[in-house]
Amino acid sequence: MSMGISSDRVDRRTWSSLSSFHRTKLVFLGAAFFSFVLSVTLWFLVDREVGLFVGLWVPAIHSLGSLVLVGEDRQ
After folding, report:
1. Cα(6)–Cα(11) distance, integer angstroms
2. Minimal CB count within 10 Å: which of 4, 23, 42, 68?
3. CA–CA separation, 9 vs 29, rounded Å?
4. What one-character DSSP code corresponds to residue 66?
5. CA torsion sign, 38 to 67 to 20 to 74?
């Protein structure tokens, strides 16, 4: 049980040691990955058209992330 607590502390320190640029980048990458997994799940389990629609979110999220992060590392 103490191993879980210590690894949680390490995760918090790792996250807090990242710059705001890298944290924002990870958030966009996580959102795109979630969208991809959701898209594949919808494609196979619900409806192909719905899965395709959600799949189009992945490049849109990456594009938005690029627009948000442009110039942020120059500060």
Report:
1. 9
2. 4
3. 23
4. H
5. positive
Tell me what the mean pLDDT of segment 48-53 comes to: 95
Here the tokens at position 21 are 């640029």
Rg (CA), the chain: 17
With tokens 């196979």, the residue in question is: 44
Question: From CA 58, how far away is CA 5, in angstroms rounded?
Answer: 34
Instruction: Dump pLDDT digits (tens) for 51-73.
Output: 999 999 999 999 999 998 887 55
DSSP state of 1: -
Digit-coded pLDDT (tens) for 28-38: 999 999 999 99
